[in-house]
Amino acid sequence: MMTLHTLIIPRPLFLLLILAVVGCFHSPSFAAEKTKPNFIIIYTDNLGYGDIEPFGSTVHRTPNLNRMAKEGRKFTHFSVTAGVCTPSRSSIMTGCYSQRLGMHDNPRDGWVLRPVSPYGLNPNEITIAEVLKEQGYATGMVGKWHLGDQKEFMPTAQGFDYFFGIPYSDDMTQEAGIRNAKRKNPRAPALANSPWPPLPLIENDKVIEAPVDRNGLTKRYTEKANEWIEAHKDGPFFLYFPQAMPGSTSTPFSSPEFRGKSKNGPWGDSIEELDWSQGQLMDKLVELGIEKNTLVIWTSDNGAPIRPEPGNVTRGSNQPLHGRGYTTSEGAFRVPTIMWWPDTIPAGTTSNEFCTTMDLLPTFARMAGGKEPGDRKIDGHDIRPLILGEAEAKTPYDAFYYYDGVQLQAVRSGPWKLFVPLQEFRNHPHFSKKKADSGEPLLFNVVSDIACENNVAGKHPEVVERLTKLAEAGRADLGDGKKRGTGQRDIGRMENPVPQVVAQ
Question: Could you tell me which residue, 192 or 156, shows the higher pLDDT?
Answer without folding.
Answer: 156
